[in-house]
Structure formats: C-alpha cells, structure tokens
Protein: DI3L2 exonuclease
Organism: Leptocoma aspasia
Amino acid sequence: PDVIIEAQFDDNDAEHGQDHLQDTLTDDIKKLSLDTSEKGKAAGVTGVHRTKQDDGPKVNDPRLLPDEFLQRTAKVVYILEKKHSRAATGFIKLLADRNSELFKRCAMFSPVDHRVPRVYVPLADCPPDFVTKPEAYSQMLFICRIVDWKEDCNFASGQLCKSLGQAGEIEPESEGILMEYGVDFSDFSPEVLECLPQSLPWDISPGELAKRRDLR
C-alpha cells in the first residue's frame, strides 16, 4: 500500500481503453509485492532463524544503489552576493491575531511576487489611519524593503519605503517593477542635460546622416 505507481497514458492506452491501463498497473503492483510475501513464506516453511552475524546488507541500503539513482544534497554555507534588491511591491493588512503584542507593533506586508516572503513592517511606517481604516488601503500598492530575516521567524522584517498608488494603474505598477529590479529612474542631472542640443527643434545634419546607418 506504500508503493505509488506512476504510469504514462499514451495513444495506445486510449485505443485499448481504461481496462488496459488498469491491468498494467495491477501487474506492476503484483511484481512489487512478491518480495515480502514470498520471503515470509520461505522462512516459515524451513524454520531457519537468521542470526545477526549472517544478516547481510538490506535491499534499501543507499550504499548499494548506483549513483544515478541517488539524490545529491547540499547545504548553503555562505551568501557570496545578494542579487535581489530586497525591495518588493505589495499590499499591507492587519495581523489576524488582534490580541497579540505583535498586532500593536506590526502589520503584514504581502508581496505581489509570491517568490518573496511575507514581511512584518512597523505600524509607524504605515499611514496614520491604517489601523482604524484598513479597508481604505486594501488596493493600495506599497514598496517594502526587507532588512532582516531571523532563523526562528516565519516571516521577514522590513520597512515601508513609499506608497505607489492604486493597484492596476500603469504608473504605480511600472514604478514598482523598476524599484524591485534596482533600476535608477530618477531625473537626469543638469550635467547630463547640458550634453543635449539646446536649440530646438534639432535635426541631424546631412553630413552626419551620411556617416550613420539608418535603422528606422
């Protein structure tokens, strides 16, 4: 009963019907169940008692299996570089347990990207009327940055950076994506703007066009 048989269903099975597939599974289960039943009968008939000395290695000993059947495991020992920006877009909501001490200090941040863990954020970072009117912010996007994640805690700790606006609008959604991936979308500095042509409208001269490849 502990054995799970995984079978593939192809066009041949579809032609022969479900009965053909059921018969194939039944045969496979019978083959796998021969081990314990027949060995038990043989031991009962002969009356042979095996001692600890002649007890050989068990069949499920992983040392007897070929390498291709083993699942290699490893352990993370050091984080060489933090690739993620630790910033995420999501929503804030009150904690479920209103009687806990944590409810008085923190709110729950739920990222839109489910690969990012949920985060405890201080209520001081939330809007002033968030505790009394949490439903007013149910569709408001926020940016949160993770600052810590302790080993004995199910959720990370973070800080709310800013409010982006209503979910579903293009500008808040775009700004959130840019911040998550660490893209600098701030305004250009005056030094950069001085490199641009000052007299508008500006056209490319015929001599410059002759040196360029037109990719329009």
The domain at 87-181 is CATH 2.40.50.700 (OB fold (Dihydrolipoamide Acetyltransferase, E2P)). Residues 12 and 195 are 70 Å apart (CA to CA). The helical segments are 11-16, 18-32, 34-46, 170-180, 190-193, 206-210. Strands lie at 87-93, 106-111, 119-122, 140-148, 156-166.
